[in-house]
Amino acid sequence: MFSTECHALTGSEKGDGTAGIEIYALCKEGWNERLAALLRDLSRIGFGRDKSIGLGQFDFLKMEPWDMFSNFKGNNGFIALSSFVPGKDDPTDGNWAVNVKYGKLGENAGCGNPFKRPFIQLKPGAVFYTGTEPKPYYGRTLTGLAPGFPDSIQLCYCLAVPCNIEWLDNG
Questions:
Q1: CB 139 within 8 A of CB 157
Q2: Rounded to an integer, what distance in angstroms lies between the CA atom of residue 74 and that of residue 70?
Q3: What would the DSSP string read from start to end of 20-88?
Q4: pTM here?
């Protein structure tokens, strides 16, 4: 989709001299151009904790369709591509690790306490057994995390890569 150019480290400091990232997005029909425009804007503004000191900017290269996650047969589970907070009806049978997220409001959220209440999320790579074809995404939206800004929300969804889980019987 696009690559990043790190403004904090030079190529030699990074080791291999390259910096890059790919982002996968699931778009509703008609949203592709809108998402591309939003990513172009974000590339100029920057993102992340050091955005306020001029870091977090990147070069948006391109956006293209990609359907490689839809070519599997016999799927009965999924692998989470990102951190997420499961919804009440999401599968629970699986293998995962947790992380405590200490979020912070953006600079446009008003004055006062910029910190959100911490919450527990599952780390990328979590694997869940669904028994049938998995959904394209899992997770939920959290509310009530910022006492000074009650309208704030935290989107806690992951894209789900279909997989076939074979249980091993160790006796």
A1: yes
A2: 11
A3: -B-------TT-HHHHHHHHHHHHHH--STTGGGT----B--------GGG--SS--EEEESS-B---T
A4: 0.76
Q: How far is CA 168 from the centre of its chain?
A: 30
Cα 124 to chain center, whole Å?
8
Query: In angstroms, rounded to a whole number, what is the distance separating the alpha carbons of residues 32 and 75?
Result: 27
Q: Which two tokens stand for residue 40?
A: 């172009």
Query: Rounded CA gap, 83 and 40, in Å?
Result: 24
**Torsion sign across C-alpha atoms 54, 142, 139, 97:** positive
With cut-offs at 50, 70 and 90, classify the pLDDT of residue 4. Answer: very low
How many Cα atoms are found within 13 Å in the side-chain-facing hemisphere of 59? 8
Of all helices (H) and strands (E), which one includes residue 140? strand 137-143
> Looking at residues 16-24, what average pLDDT do you find?
69
pLDDT digits (tens, 9 = 90+) for 90-104: 999 999 999 999 988
Structure tokens, 140: 């939920």
